[in-house]
Structure prediction request, 94 residues.
Amino acid sequence: MRYLFSTGLFAAITAGISLLRGTRDAPITWRALLAWTSWAITLAFAIGAFVDMRRDERGVAVAIDSPIAPVQAKRAKKQAKQVEKAEKKTSKGR
Prediction:
């Protein structure tokens, strides 16, 4: 439920509602088509961000071009260092 109220998705939905109200009685022009195309792209990005956040939360790798990818890489490096440090402690204790 928290993803439904994320800012990107919320903004895309509200923009779609206002776009629908604004173009309901207007004739179809190239500007209206461009506005709807822009809204569809915005919605696709918001859904993509939702999917990436969900994958990150579950521990699944995200695409390299995702804004979450650097965070995942940093977290993986930190975990690798912690494992390495724990291995060194156990090998010294033997």
About this structure: The helical segments are 7-23, 30-58, 69-92. The mean pLDDT is 86. The CA atoms of residues 77 and 83 lie 10 Å apart. The chain has three helices and no strands.
